[in-house]
């Protein structure tokens, strides 16, 4: 935005300081003049002559004092304003560096807590968050590119093999291409949902988490039965506000994740509850022993736990990342906790519906 040039803050402070000093000096000189003039009590003619004589003697001194105060006010105001605005100059320089794309620098303003120190600390915190966010986005873009490139490379390889070997079984090739294409579609759709959740571009409405959990359980029950797993659904009404489609995607991801990454003949528990602090959805499953260090990374995009990629349903590595993003878009919290007997417990807490 282009704006008309104006006086700098330092110059404004200097002029204000000098003006205040001049005004204070003028008031003191005026008070001194009238104090001296009250010492004369002859007749009116003598008072006028005395006032003239007094003013003749007082005026040069007053002019010298006012000139001194003007110079002193300008110099002192300039120095004091520069000293007071020095932290603001550092903050401005840091802002310009950030505008140029540098997010690694910090102001680290020394001294006791005051308005400038609070502003500098807030700016440093903002820079740290921006740097972490940009690094996460860059890492996500690199991982997404890698994940999307994999099915495309496999498709190209299969097509080259089919071209070089015309007698190859076409049905097998079609099946493999179908599987690879389905994985690419799933990944693309997951990325679109993730982007939509991050932008919070959805309509909020009254939603009951217990109904969503029940719908999800019924939908994924065949997959659980196919793997020999048992699903237990329990809980009370848990009203909240949000997007029904996104919350259904959230619950589906959590339950499907609990089914896919489970033990043979294992179990999945889905529960909802309404608490004073919010509506809660919990999904637990049996499984391998997970360390807290591993669990802390599972909600990052394209992160998979032990032996996940070697399964028959590896997924795209965005299930828990999508769940976390959808939860945060609804102003909620998602907590991952390893179970003592093995497996994972996921708790989602969303705000209570008004």
Task: For this entry, give a set of tags.
Heat Shock Protein 90; alpha+beta; 8 helices; 3 domains; five-stranded mixed sheet; two-stranded antiparallel ribbon; 354 residues; elongated; single chain
Structure classification:
alpha+beta
The total beta strand count reads: 7
Largest sheet descriptor: 5 strands, mixed
Q: Give the CA-based shape.
A: elongated
N-C termini distance: 42 Å
Structure description:
It is built from eight helices and seven strands, in the order H-H-H-H-E-H-E-E-H-E-E-H-H-E-E. It has a five-stranded mixed β-sheet, with helices on one face. Strands 1-3 form a two-stranded antiparallel ribbon. It is elongated, with a radius of gyration of 37 Å. The model is unreliable at 44-49 and 306-314 (pLDDT under 50). The two termini are 42 Å apart. Helix content is 61%, strand content 12%. With 354 residues, the protein is of the alpha+beta class. It folds into three domains: 9-97, no CATH class; 147-199; 205-350, Histidine kinase-like ATPase, C-terminal domain (Heat Shock Protein 90, 2-Layer Sandwich). Helix 3 (115-164) runs antiparallel to helix 4 (170-199). It has helices at residues 9-37, 44-99, 115-164, 170-199, 209-226, 244-260, 292-295, 319-329; strands spanning 205-208, 230-235, 239-242, 267-275, 278-285, 333-338, 344-350.
Task: Summarize this structure briefly.
With 354 residues, this protein is an alpha+beta fold. 61% of the residues lie in helices and 12% in strands.
